[in-house]
Write a structure and sequence with these properties.
The complex is a heterodimer of chains A (281) and B (308). Chain A is mainly alpha-helical and 281 residues long. Chain A has 12 helices and 2 strands. In chain A, strands 1-2 form a two-stranded antiparallel ribbon. In chain A, β1 and β2 form a beta hairpin. Chain A is globular. By secondary structure, chain B is mainly alpha-helical. Chain B has a two-stranded antiparallel sheet. In chain B, a hairpin with a 2-residue loop joins β1 and β2. Classes of the chains: A mainly alpha (281), B mainly alpha (308). At the A-B interface, α3 and α11 of A face α4 of B.
Chain lengths: 281, 308
């Protein structure tokens, strides 16, 4: 709309068209990020995943001594986490860098788009890509389970989907980590940092245990600071239990959701702060 | 050089390079020990370290070691088979002596540390491990009970190990501990029976029947089924020998063939073929063995009943 009319019906041609709301701007960037991921064939990993599961379902029956359902859940969810982590980290670190490299960032910032909105849109776009990825993979694992255990698959499926929700939360957190690194450094360093944090994140639970071994307050304090200062990714690791049909308690899933949201907010805020200071001239 | 010739040269280089790499790999492999020796080694990492390093993929790592262990045992069974003897793998599960106890112990410990809820592993270990290291089997089952306090049937597996060793009191105790966790009264009865007469064939039959019913692992299930078959066949042969003795007492000679005792066998409750011979639990006919010393019954070569 190029002009507006007031209540009296007068046509005012001097008033500029209203800028889209912040929410719409973020949504537009998220949509474009998702489209770009699809164009870049990021979802092709699903083909590999389906192949892996199909071959496993056919051959595991004979080789695993009746443990095929357990192994399919282990394999499916582990592949989901691994593929998702690769996408979150390696696509995530390229989100900002590619816009700088192609100089499209200048065109975006020439429009009324804030740097924070840009980062949030990129984050949500990649989260949407990951959501599509995990839902399709989850559906694939469910179908294979139906094929392997036609009866009594319900408890296994309930455990499966609650665990998929936890995996998705972990991937959303990893995306925020990758975005934080990419907001101030090169893609190589960002990828290295994100992978390192993925590895360390699975050890942080041990830090709390180590802290109890020290008498010195300083050492104990340092270990506890590290524990609380780094995301504890083992909170989201319930794959092994899911393979036995043990669903994570709903209270745990809700707690993990709150934990992931808190970390996402903190990481995105830090990324926005660092990105705001970055000089693109 | 034209573009087409250059492309052809590159394809040729690719094929030659690949063929050279495969050829060299074969030459190098011929000069070093086969990979099988490596596969038969115990895991290098300590189980707790492996669990820490698994980064959330503990279940998958446990599955990997489980498949490795099955292959290791399968390979050992194949290697220990005598030429021409068609011995069933399921029957041999509790008699595999050729496995390296250290490798098997480490593999089982690794799997159950990575995934303590993998109960099929404890079940499998209860059958396979006692043949090479009964103490390790008991330790592993106790670990399984600690890690899975709600799985009452692990007590049954532990009781089986004790019963196999002739430790009937310990077996009865394991059954009673399991009985406290379930409303099924049969565990209590098993405890009483083992305590009173642990060596009775009826106790053995009940033990294998329960293991057959509870088994999650198809190999263990098949093994229990074959053990039940063996017990049933032993009882049938005892009954057939009774019929043969009665015939000899009456006729002062052995029967020339089964048809002479078919009616007596049938009245003793034994399954009999329309052609005369009694049938074993696998459906094969028993063989009547006639010798200058007398007559006896034995399994037919086509029978799949385990031969002890």
């Amino acid at each position: 709309m190029l002009a507006t009319t007031d209540a009296a019906g007068t046509l005012d041609l001097t008033q500029a068209p209203p800028a889209p709301s912040s929410r719409r701007r973020v949504a537009a960037i998220a949509r474009n990020t998702f489209r770009e991921a699809v164009r870049d064939r990021v979802l092709y990993n699903l083909v590999l995943f389906v192949l892996l599961l199909s071959v496993s379902a056919i051959f595991l029956g004979a080789a695993s001594a009746s443990q095929d359902a357990k192994i399919i859940v282990d394999l499916g969810l582990s592949a989901m986490l691994l593929f998702g982590a690769f996408i979150a980290i390696f696509v995530g670190v390229g989100l900002v860098w590619k816009e700088i490299e192609r100089r499209t960032l200048y065109a975006i910032f020439a429009k009324p788009v804030g740097r924070g909105e840009f980062l949030l849109g990129k984050y949500l776009g990649l989260c949407l890509t990951l959501a599509v990825n995990v839902v399709v993979m989850g559906a694939g694992v469910s179908l294979v389970l139906f094929y392997v255990v036609s009866r009594g698959a319900a408890p296994l499926l309930a455990a499966l989907w609650l665990t998929i929700a936890l995996i998705y939360l972990e991937l959303s957190l990893l995306t925020a980590v990758a975005l934080l690194f990419s907001s101030f450094s090169s893609p190589v360093f960002s990828a290295f940092g994100s992978v390192a944090l993925f590895v360390i994140g699975h050890f942080t639970a041990d830090l709390k245990g180590f802290a109890t071994l020290f008498d010195a307050a300083a050492a104990k304090g340092l270990l506890l600071a590290l524990y609380y200062g780094l995301p504890n990714l083992s909170t989201f690791s319930r794959i092994t239990a899911a393979a036995h049909g043990i669903a994570p308690p709903v209270a745990h899933v809700l707690g993990a959701l709150a934990y992931a949201v808190a970390w996402d907010v903190a990481l995105l805020a830090a990324a926005a702060l660092l990105f705001a200071r970055r000089d693109f001239k | 050089m034209t573009a087409r010739a250059r492309q052809g040269a590159l394809v040729l280089a690719l094929l030659l390079g690949f063929a050279g790499a495969v050829g060299m790999a074969r030459v190098l492999d011929a000069g070093r020990p086969t990979l099988q020796a490596v596969a038969d080694e115990a895991p290098y990492l300590a189980p707790d370290t492996a669990r820490r390093l698994a980064l959330g993929f503990e279940g998958l790592a446990a599955d990997w070691y489980w498949l490795s262990m099955l292959q290791y045992i399968g390979r050992r069974i194949e290697e220990s088979r005598t030429v021409g003897a068609a011995v069933d793998q399921a029957v041999q599960l509790d008699r595999i002596k050729s496995v390296d106890p250290r490798v098997l112990r480490r593999l089982l410990d690794m799997i159950t540390t990575l995934d303590p809820r993998f109960t099929a592993v404890y079940e499998f270990a209860a059958v396979v491990l006692p043949a090479v290291d009964a103490e390790a089997a008991i330790t592993l089952l106790e670990k399984g009970i600690r890690e899975n306090p709600d799985q009452w049937y692990l007590h049954q597996q532990l009781a089986y190990i004790f019963w196999q060793r002739g430790e009937n009191l310990a077996a009865a105790d394991a059954f009673r501990r399991g009985a406290n966790m379930t409303t099924a009264r049969w565990m209590e009865h098993m405890a009483d029976n083992i305590e009173a007469r642990g060596d009775d064939p009826q106790v053995a039959r009940a033990m294998y029947a329960r293991m057959y019913e509870q088994a999650q692992d198809e190999q263990v299930k098949e093994w229990a089924r074959r053990r039940l078959m063996e017990l049933q066949s032993l009882e049938e042969r005892r009954a057939i020998r009774g019929v043969l003795s009665a015939f000899i007492k009456a006729q002062q000679r052995c029967p020339r063939d089964w048809t002479e005792v078919t009616a007596a066998l049938a009245s003793a409750g034994l399954p009999v073929s329309p052609l005369g011979p009694p049938l074993d639990p696998s459906g094969a006919p028993y063989m009547l063995v006639l010798s200058p010393l007398g007559c006896d019954v034995t399994l037919h070569p086509v029978s799949t009943v385990p031969r002890g």
